[in-house]
Amino acid sequence: MGTLQTCAGLESGIDAAIHAVRKSFEEDNSECLLLVDAENAFNKLNRKVSLEKHQKTVSPIYTYLHNNYNTPSMLYLENGNHMLSQEGVTQGDNAAVAMYALSTRPLVRALSSETANDEVKQVWYADDSSALGSLAGVKKWWEYLQANGPDFR
């Protein structure tokens, strides 16, 4: 099993993630499993940085993402007022999961590269991730994620 981000572009992605983790955990060399759920991750995504990266790396979908996220979204409040949402992706928007998945690709790849010698396997479903492998390898993965995850660009 390689690095997986199963929230976009894969039918029944959550099922694939669950089966991949279960299969990997049953292997003899898996000493531990760490499950991580990023706090408020969809809302904290930096739109500007993500769109700049997507323009260069995923040009076929870039126009769609740009049209959805280039300008702030109007959020209407109960009292008739509104506020502008300038960061993150909008839950319920068809492009939100794809935007988030593409935006996390550099971090997922860096984690994979950083822990490749430790044989750590990781599976992601949007902002939920898991790391499996040796205790030392998973600890290294976790430390890298803590140090680089929140502001990774």
What would your notes on this structure say?
The structure is a single chain. This protein has a domain at 4-46 and 90-148. It has helices at 13-25, 41-44, 47-57, 59-69, 96-114, 135-148, and strands at residues 4-5, 32-37, 73-76, 82-85, 121-125, 128-133. The strands form 2 sheets. The chain has a 4-stranded mixed β-sheet with strand order 1-5-6-2, with helices on both faces. It is α+β, with helices and mostly antiparallel strands and 153 residues long.
Question: Could you outline the blueprint of secondary structure elements for this entry?
Answer:
Elements: E1 4-5, H1 13-25, E2 32-37, H2 41-44, H3 47-57, H4 59-69, E3 73-76, E4 82-85, H5 96-114, E5 121-125, E6 128-133, H6 135-148
Parallel strand pairs: 1-5
Antiparallel strand pairs: 2-6, 3-4, 5-6
Helix pairs in contact: 3-4, 5-6
Descriptors for this entry?
single chain, 153 residues, alpha+beta, four-stranded mixed beta sheet, two-stranded antiparallel ribbon, 6 strands, 18% strand
Briefly say what this structure is:
By secondary structure, this protein is an alpha+beta fold. Helix content is 47%, strand content 18%. Helix 3 runs antiparallel to helix 4 (59-69) and helix 5 (96-114) crosses helix 6 (135-148).
CA-based shape: elongated
What is the averaged pLDDT score?
84
Please state the CA-atom Rg, rounded to the nearest Å: 17 Å
Terminus-to-terminus distance: 25 Å
Helix count, DSSP H or I runs of 4 or more residues: 6
The poorly predicted ranges are none
